[in-house]
Amino acid sequence: MNIQVTPLAVRKLSERLGDQLGIFKLFYDTEGCGCDGINVLLIVDQAEHGDTPVETGSVPMVVSRQQEIFYEETMRLDADERMSSFKLDSHSQIYGKNILVRDVRSGSVIPAETAVCSVLN
């Protein structure tokens, strides 16, 4: 899988990583969502068994082998200067215009009752 990440998206994702170690995980979340599911970018400490590296050229990213079926082989990740979310699309579809980043690294403070698809500031 290959995701072309625009320069603006690279900058904004790098800002989200900060000075801590971590990688992004493209995740299709259906847990606790009032819809069929949403795409999110999780920041995780490291890849898990069963994760596949995503070729981005600049941003460390993985996707679960089980979730690869939801995505096309080639996609594009973009950002908007005024928004904190991202847009993921391909030549044939838009996966999301409001994809949020959720930091789930071990050093992050996340309320236990908050679902991944909840909007957080």
From TrEMBL:
Location of the Core domain: 1-101
InterPro entries (UniProt xref): ATAP_core_dom, HesB-like_dom_sf
Coiled coil start-end: none
User: What name is this protein filed under?
Assistant: Core domain-containing protein
Q: Which organism is it from?
A: Paenibacillus albidus
